[in-house]
Hints:
CATH topology of the largest domain: Glutaredoxin
Distance between the termini: 73 Å
Number of helices: 7
CATH architecture of the largest domain: 3-Layer(aba) Sandwich
Shape: globular
Helix content: 25-40%
Amino acid sequence: MRKVLILAALASLLGLFGCGGASSDTANAVSPTAKRYPFKGKIVSVDRAAKKASIDHEAIEGYMSAMTMDFPIHADWAWDSIKPGAEITGELVVDNKAKEPYFLENIVIISAADPNAPARDPQFAQIGQPAPDFTLTNQDAKKITLKTFEGKAFAITFIYAKCPLPEFCIKMSGNFRDAARTIAADPELRDKLRLLTISFDPENDTPEKLRAYGVSYMGNDPNAKFDVWQLAVGPDAEVRKIADFYGLRYEVDPNNKAIFNHSLRTAVISPDGKVTKIFAGSDWTPTQLIDALKAAETAK
Length: 300
C-alpha cells in the first residue's frame, strides 16, 4: 500500500513539474513527417488569448539562427506558468501539414521569471513613435517613400510572394485585398486610407512579379488599379531596417533556401507619420484593420 502511495505522489509531482500533462499536446495531432528541434529561450511577452509567446531564443541547430519571434504553445497549463523573464527549454515542432506549421511542445521552465521585473511587450514598443522613412519601388516600378502617404492613414504589412503557408503571407495578402476593396468602395475612405505590402525577398520579388502577385489576389484583372493597395520591394538592407523597427523577424530557411522562416507584423500609421497600432500575428480581420485606420485618421 505504501508503495502505491509513493508512486501516486511521484505521478502528481511529475504532473506539476514536467510538461504540464499531455492532454493538450496530444489533442494537436502531429504528422509523421514533422521535424523536431531542441529549443531554449527566454520569454519576452505572452499573449494568453492567442496562445502565443514572444521568445528570445538561442540558435536552433540545423534550422534557424537566434532571434526573437512569436511561437504558438498549445499546452493550456503553460499560460499559468510562463511569464516574461522566464527561461524555458522544449521542442520546436515544424509540421507543414498542420494548421499551425510550427509550435512548441514539451516545455520545461528552467528559470522562473523575476517577480519584481516589470512586464514588457516589445511588439508595441514603437507605438507613438515616428515611422521610419524608406525608399522602395512599387509594383509599377515607381519610387515610393514615407512622404508618398503623407496626410493619409496607412497600414504596412510584410510578405514574400512564394510563401506557401495559409496563415502567414497568404492570409496577410487576402486581408489587405479585402480591406482594399472595402476602402475603394467607400468614397470617404478612398480619399483617406492606404495599404502597403512590403516584400522581404528582393532577390525574387521584382516589381513586375509583385504586380502579378497583386493581380492574382484582385481577381486576375490585368487592368487592376493599385491606387489603394500598393506592393513594394527594396534592397535587403532597406527592407530589414523597416522590418527591424516594427519587430518583424525573417531568415532564409537553412534547409530550403526557397522559403523564409518569419514572424508577422502589420502596423498602422497616422496621417502625421506616427505609429498608432501594431498587429502581431494573423489573428486580425480586414474590418479590425479598417477600424484601426479610421482611428488613426481621426486622431491626426
